[in-house]
Amino acid sequence: MKALRVLAVLFGLLAISNLSKPLGTSVEQGFVFFGRRLTGTPNLIAGWAFAVFLGAYARALWQERTEALPMGIAYAGYVAANLFLFQLRMPPAEGNAILFGIVYTIVAIGTSWGAVVLMLREGYAERDGVPGRALLRSFALLFALMALSNVLKPFAYSETTGFVLLGQRLSGTPNVVVALAFAGFLAFYAYAIWTERRIAVQLGAAYAVYVLANLLLWNFRKPEGAVTPLVFGLPYLASAIGVSCGAAFLLRRHRDRLAP
Question: Could you read off the pLDDT of 55-72 as tens digits, one per residue?
Fold first, then answer.
């Protein structure tokens, strides 16, 4: 059996594991999303959403379909970010938990990025035949992930989950309305990129401008005492600007082949 099919089975088993997350009997079994362990409805939404994604990814890998590559890139990027944020947001591990954390990190990074490396070695990018498609679709999946994050914001499962609009963190009804509106926008943007629609060019430019404005205004309007550690702030800035502006740049570069 090919190594990629072995990984496909592993991702399929992980999908089944995520389906069971909302049925866990303890808080420690909740789904970890961007470094935070979820409970209740957010745990259900995120756990099942990732179960569906991993099931589709496992199927694409098993069938050796080209869309497995962007799915793998997006998933590997998410895994790395999730592990990084988990280390920052959770209390330091003690005893056997330290060894478990090291082994888990090695396995998670190794399997997620290993699948991407294997696909690149087997020529998945060249097999697609359309330059830039794999990377653009990776961006599409990352925007879909951001849409999921916004769907969870109305549940306010932590003090910092409110939607930040033009540098101001929202709460209550405004948080619900704006978060769900942006979730819809990002879901449509992701769909437009994946299906290669020309409207994605305008959506990408608008979203990139918004992200830059939001980051700038946050420095002036953030709550008193809200200090972001440098070890978290720099990677966040790099990813937020890189993904939004990178996608907008690629879409503009490939706009001639996009469908109306």
Answer: 999 999 999 999 999 999
